[in-house]
Amino acid sequence: MAVLWVCDVVSVEASSAYQGPGAWWLLAPGVVAGVAVLLPDDRLALPWRAGAAVVASVAMTATHLVALEPEFSGWGLLETLCLLLLLGRAAREMRQPWRASALCTALGVAVVVAPLRLRVADNILYSWLLTLAVGGVLGLACYLRVLDGRRRRAVVAVRQNERLALARELHDFVAHHVTGIVVQAQAARTIRETAPEQVDQLLCGIEQAGSETLESMRKLVRVLREDDTGAVRPGELFAELAELVAAFSERDVPATLQVAAGARQVRPDPEVETSVRNVVREALTNVRRHASGAPSVLVRLDLAGPEEGPRRLRVEVHNAPPARQPQPNAEPLGGRGGLGLVGLTERTEAVGGRLHAGPAEDGGWRLTAEFPVRDAVAGSSA
């Protein structure tokens, strides 16, 4: 845009001696179109900016066509480029089909008729060439629009699948809680005559299990349960993670699992345990696909947050940078998907957590997730 603007200024300056001061008005449509391209969307919506560029360009063309003895002629290269950029954005980004069609038609017409300002015989040829340019921009923008639509649908499908998987697993955990409630109620009935002092403790356990079940059910009613699949066994999160990391270390990259003492003293909800397992599994899968030459992988579980305030279970998966960096255009193992983190984020936020992934200080990659937890019950193993 800067180069074309300089070309336009040089052209007008060279011809102003013959056309007079009015020749500088040739730059006006280009300025308006340039501002329309560079102005942020939060300042002014795209249809208004593109409409202003169309009005400025068509007004200049109409002035040349109706003037019997125009003081200036010609059109700017910056104007044409900016109108084509606005045309591509309108065709790709505008969601309403009729508004997009109307605006794209106006932009295309403004580009095609601009060469008619020239008082030469070749203006029709220039208009025909710009018609090809308009068609090429529209074709590219529509292709990108189709790709954007496919990605949006893929993201929706991934999120829906994560919700369904979470619903299946929550169902299993709710059944586990209800079974515990039934067993404790039967025990209370059995000992109410022989050991009545223990009935209150059993009732407290029933109340706590019922509260946990209701919390899980609140999440369950927001999703739909379908086919059954395996889930993490309640209370065996660290054993599951040890098996997962050991299997990964044997097949791929040397991996280490570190569980801080504080992390062993908390009680994650069943759905949180499942989400932690899935975060670690997806992170290790990404290491296999994108950093297969990494010298080591560290999986660490610890507590985050203030000592006196609510603590959160922090899960961190960090891989060192590979000794040999992959080629920029190399295809990752298993192909390019790019939706794994979308599903993880959806699952993490569904249970009240948050997730972050990005480059590490040593050039490797770090994925961090934090989940809400409860303190361990006195005398329990967790």
From TrEMBL:
Alphabetically ordered keywords of this record: ATP-binding, Kinase, Membrane, Nucleotide-binding, Phosphoprotein, Transferase, Transmembrane, Transmembrane helix, Two-component regulatory system
UniProt-listed Enzyme Commission number(s): 2.7.13.3
Span of domain Signal transduction histidine kinase subgroup 3 dimerisation and phosphoacceptor: 162-228
Gene Ontology MF, one: protein dimerization activity
Domain Histidine kinase/HSP90-like ATPase: start-end pairs: 252-342
Coiled-coil ranges per UniProt: none
Membrane-spanning segments: 22-39, 46-66, 72-88, 100-118, 124-144
Family annotation (Pfam families): HATPase_c_2, HisKA_3
Assigned GO CC terms: membrane
Name of the protein in its database record: histidine kinase
Species in which this protein is naturally found: Streptomyces cacaoi
